[in-house]
Specification:
The complex is a heterodimer of chains A (about 110) and B (about 120).
Chain A (H helix, E strand, L loop, with lengths): L2 E3 L3 E5 L4 E8 L6 E6 L6 E6 L3 E5 L2 E6 L4 E6 L8 E8 L5 E3 L3 E6 L1
Parallel strand pairs in A: 2-11
Antiparallel strand pairs in A: 1-3, 3-8, 4-5, 4-9, 6-7, 7-8, 9-10, 9-11
Chain B lengths: L3 E4 L2 E4 L4 E8 L5 E7 L6 E7 L2 E5 L6 E7 L2 E7 L7 E8 L10 E2 L3 E5 L1
Parallel strand pairs in B: 2-11
Antiparallel strand pairs in B: 1-3, 3-8, 4-5, 4-9, 5-6, 7-8, 9-10, 9-11
Classes of the chains: A mainly beta (about 110), B mainly beta (about 120).
Chain lengths: ~110, ~120
């Protein structure tokens, strides 16, 4: 079957770095998305990876290893506003997104 | 209006009621989606429309009925719902079908409570 695994919750300190991991199993693969969702709000797009390697976008970076079925989202210089849920989603052979349950990130001062 | 809008934002309905959720996208996108989001569960894709044609129906009960009259509007008609249908219903759009590097843009959602 198709499956996405990511940790349920993580805690980090303001100013620090945190890495949120995601493993996926899909029928075919057409890329990996990361979204951010603040409580009570809509998910917003953060990144897309389809080739192996690291994509950097300001304080956020996303990494993909297709052979390992693995991705991570790296957040640097954490700010209180980064407290949110981070959703990992893999695109399968039909371009349908398979979603993880999300990782709730708690930032402490 | 910009982006993706949804109305109503909150809805409480009884099991015998009929109601509709509305979604409108102002982005010129060709694909639109309905998702169900329940607490601590992955987003569940319900329906996908591409150029106003339904391309995906993920075994959704018939008490949910989608309608896409044009590429900018999407409706979800609800009737005889069950309490377990209470959830956040999210609408999204993308330039084309998701997966070709086309990220989805989400509306704020409708918080539905079935009593």
């Amino acid at each position: 079957g198709q499956n996405i695994d990511q940790p349920t919750e993580m805690t980090a300190t303001e100013g620090a770095i945190v890495q949120i991991n995601c493993t996926y199993q899909t029928s075919g693969f057409n890329g990996l998305f990361w979204y951010q969702q603040h409580a009570g709000e809509a998910p917003t797009f953060l990144s897309y990876n389809v080739l192996d390697g690291l994509e950097e976008k300001g304080r956020f970076s996303s990494f993909l290893s297709r052979s390992k079925g693995y991705s991570y989202l790296l957040l640097k210089e954490l700010q209180m506003k980064d407290s949110a849920s981070y959703l990992c989603a893999a695109s399968d052979s039909n371009y349908q997104l398979i979603w993880g349950a999300g990782t709730k990130l708690i930032i402490k001062p | 209006e910009t982006g993706v809008t949804q109305t109503p934002r909150h809805l409480v309905m009884g099991m015998t009621n009929k109601k509709s959720l509305k979604c409108e996208q102002h982005l010129g996108h060709n694909a639109m989606y309905w998702y169900k989001q329940s607490a601590k569960k992955p987003l569940e894709l319900m329906f996908v429309y591409s150029l106003e044609e339904r391309v995906e129906n993920n075994s959704v009960p018939s008490r949910f009925s989608p309608e896409c009259p044009n590429s900018s509007h999407l409706f979800l008609h609800l009737h005889t719902l069950q309490p377990e249908d209470s959830a956040l219903y999210l609408c999204a759009s993308s330039q084309d079908l998701a997966g070709e590097g086309n990220e989805q843009y989400f509306g704020p959602g409708t918080r539905l409570t079935v009593t």
